[in-house]
Amino acid sequence: MAVLAESGSNPDVDLLYDINGLAKDAPHWFDRVMEYVGEYGILLGMVLLILWCWWAGRRRGGEDAASSVAALVWAPLAAALAVLVNVPIRGFVERPRPFRTHEGLEVLVSGKTDYSFVSDHATITMAMAAGLFVANRKFGLVGIALALLEGFCRVYMGVHYPTDVIGGFALGTAVTLLLSPLAMALLTPVMKAVEGSSKGAWIVRARGVERGTSVIPGARQEAAASERDLAA
Asked: Where are the transmembrane segments (predicted)?
């Protein structure tokens, strides 16, 4: 199990050279951008996307506000748990980084001495994207797109095989979705308790938004008009 791809005659290695070859032909400044985006930028973007979803959800309110916030809390927790699960997987597979086995790669990040399978970055981003999808499908789709971009960047940078990335996607998704029912069962009551408190309610819903209501322009006026029609 020490080596999953030793030869350049398999699709995994061929795709590695094809994607990483783009780095050789790209301008130096573009490679530096890809290095930053692949190493730090997308991870930061995922965190900001989760915060944006939380901010929008708390202003919208609704009966499912507590469960939505619980799903958002679960997203980073799932990512951290998935990375922990990856520790024994890496030790079992012991796959060297591609630049240690294959010559001619354009490596954009130095100092990578750990094993390659599976990619932590791909695992983290897809775990958070899956958790985000549970909370809000629109935000989740954006998160999945960012995770896919992260996977491309890791191969482009020459630090992972494509199968490292695919394995990370599978691991992050599996941990998030398989443990989601248990996580939601534990976190949702906590968020409902927070929602019902006087000091922590702002975490679940914005001030002025009552429990079980939704901040939709004109909603209150339409509800009042309906009541008047019924009364008449």
From this structure: 40-57, 69-89, 115-134, 141-159, 165-187
Q: How far apart are CA 177 and CA 92, in angstroms?
A: 24
Higher pLDDT, 213 or 176: 176
Cα distance from N-terminal residue to C-terminal residue, the chain: 77
Q: What tokens were used for 36? A: 């930053």
Mean pLDDT, the chain, integer? 83
Q: Is the pLDDT of residue 221 over 50?
A: no
Question: Helices 120-135 and 180-196: crossing angle, nearest 10°?
Answer: 60
Of the chain, the percentage scoring pLDDT greater than 90 comes to: 49
What is d(CA 179, CA 146) in angstroms, rounded to the nearest whole number?
22
What is the spatial distance between Cα 198 and Cα 109, in angstroms, rounded to a whole number?
48
